[in-house]
C-alpha cells in the first residue's frame, strides 16, 4: 500500500540517521560506514546526506581513524523541521497536486485537505525534537528533562 505522505529518500535517511546518532552516539562520532550498515543503505548516499546536514550545522564531521559524524547540537535543540529543511529546503504550506498554477487555490478540487495536511505535517515537524525520538526509541541520551523535550 502506498503512503499518501511522500518524504524524499534523502530526508528519510536524515531522520533515521540523526535519530540513530541521538540514541547511539553518546557524543562520540560514529562512522558513516557503520550507520549505513545499520540501515542497509548506500554509504555514498548517506555521506551526501551528512554533507547537507553538516552545511546546516546539524552534524559535525571529523576525519581520521577516530573520526565520523556526531550531532553538532543537543538533541533537544534539533527538530524534524530543521532536518527536513536542511535536506529538501523550506517546507511549503500549500500546493497544487499538478505542481502548476492551473488552479487559483480558492476552488481546489481537494478542498481544504492539502492545506490541513501540510499544516499538520509542519506542526509535527516543528514540535518533534530528536530528543523526543530518542526517548521513543528507548535512548534518551542527549536530553536533560523529558518533560521539557516535546
Report a brief summary of the structure.
The chain has 150 residues and is mostly helical.
Attribute tags:
two-stranded antiparallel sheet, 6 helices, disordered C terminus, single chain, 150 residues
Q: Would you report the number of β strands? A: 2
Main sheet overview = 2 strands, antiparallel
State the end-to-end distance.
30 Å
- Helix-and-strand structural type: mainly alpha
Task: Please report which band the strand proportion falls in: under 5%, 5-15%, 15-25%, 25-35%, 35-45% or over 45%.
Answer: 5-15%
CA-atom Rg in angstroms: 17 Å
Continuous helix count = 6
Order of helices and strands: HHHEEHHH
Shape verdict: elongated
Query: Unreliable runs, pLDDT <50, ≥5 residues?
Result: 139-150
Chain-averaged pLDDT? 83
- The amount of helix comes to 40-55%
Strand order of the largest sheet: 1-2
Tell me about this structure:
The structure is a single chain. This protein is mostly helical. It contains six helices and two strands. The chain has helices spanning 9-24, 32-39, 43-55, 80-88, 113-127, 130-136, and strands at residues 59-62, 68-71. It has a two-stranded antiparallel sheet. Helix 1 packs across helix 4 (80-88). The longest helix has 16 residues, at 9-24. The protein is elongated, with a radius of gyration of 17 Å. Mean pLDDT is 83; it is low at 139-150.
Itemize the secondary structure elements and their pairings.
Layout: H1 9-24, H2 32-39, H3 43-55, E1 59-62, E2 68-71, H4 80-88, H5 113-127, H6 130-136
Antiparallel strand pairs: 1-2
Amino acid at each position: 500500500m502506498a503512503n499518501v505522505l511522500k518524504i524524499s529518500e534523502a530526508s528519510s535517511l536524515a531522520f533515521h540517521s540523526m535519530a540513530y546518532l541521538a540514541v547511539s552516539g553518546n557524543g562520540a562520532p560514529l562512522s558513516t560506514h557503520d550507520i549505513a550498515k545499520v540501515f542497509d543503505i548506500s554509504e555514498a548516499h548517506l555521506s551526501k546526506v551528512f554533507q547537507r546536514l553538516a552545511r546546516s550545522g546539524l552534524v559535525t564531521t571529523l576525519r581520521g581513524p577516530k573520526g565520523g559524524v556526531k550531532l553538532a547540537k543537543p538533541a533537544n535543540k534539533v527538530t524534524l523541521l530543521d532536518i527536513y529543511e536542511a535536506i529538501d529546503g523550506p517546507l511549503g504550506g500549500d500546493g497544487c497536486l499538478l505542481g502548476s498554477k492551473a488552479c487559483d487555490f480558492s476552488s481546489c478540487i481537494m478542498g481544504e485537505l492539502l492545506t490541513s495536511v501540510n499544516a499538520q505535517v509542519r506542526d509535527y515537524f516543528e514540535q518533534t525534537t530528536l530528543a523526543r525520538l530518542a526517548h521513543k526509541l528507548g535512548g534518551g541520551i542527549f536530553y536533560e528533562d523529558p518533560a521539557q523535550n516535546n
